Amino acid sequence: MSKASMIPAPAGATTATAAGTARAKVRPDAPWAWLAAGWRDLWRVPFISLTYGVLFAGVSGFLTWMLFGLELEYLLMPMVAGFMLVGPMLAVGLYETSRRLDAGESTDLGSALFVTTRSPAQLAFLGALLMLMLLAWIRIAQLIYALFFGLAGFPGFEQSVHLLFFTVDGLAMLAIGSVVGGVIAAAVFAVAAFAVPMLMVREVDAITAMIASAAAVRANFWPMLVWGWLIVVLTGVGIVTLYVGLIVTFPLLGHATWHAYRHVVDGVAPSEA
Predict the structure, then answer these.
(1) What is the pLDDT of residues 26-65, one digit of tens each?
(2) Where are the domains of the chain?
(3) What is the sign of the dihedral through the CA atoms of 258, 260, 263 and 268?
(4) CB count, 10 Å around CB of 168?
(5) Which of 7, 23, 121, 177 has its CA 20 to 30 A from that of 68?
């Protein structure tokens, strides 16, 4: 076991995990403290955080424009839902910025965009797994659509709104798709919630990090349920504002996720300063 993978935690506050890390039991209202700590980090380095948010919102808008331009707008909803699967990988630079703020190290945009991690190959492997899950979800969404509407072509974005929300088949498809997508998202959330920041700072393999993440989520089911709900709500706000809201909500969630990792995995509660 690498010495780098061991970070001490307050006595009696944690239990051991397979990854050799600590695992704290946190209060159900802990996610609000993570969010508050993320908000403080965002405004401690607003240029880095908001630039990150602008870049992310810009890429999201560009991809949406490309989908419409290529007449692939039927992929928009699965892609939006799939954001939850790959989101943890996209916020690595924000984790690094919060880590540097915690450690009293210097921060700059370059260190956020080009992060040096302790387990780069394993982090890349995890990223590939998450991308495969995204592609699998898109294929599953297409199969669910075909189950209800056959092989007929996509009727267009405006007509699809009526089809999905004002017909029996459309509502049934949304219900089944939401259940299937929710199960996939929950499973991916459990294994990736803490695995990504763990691989950023520790010399462990991806499978061990995923197992440790799932164990930490299971041990803190209710606070992690609240945290998952906050992620969905804040991401949804960012999306329905035509991605403008993501300029703030994405870096906010990224910074907050680092504090969630530190609290749950390392047993270090966020400072209220």
Answers:
(1) 999 999 999 999 999 999 999 999 999 999 999 999 988 9
(2) 17-264
(3) positive
(4) 8
(5) 177
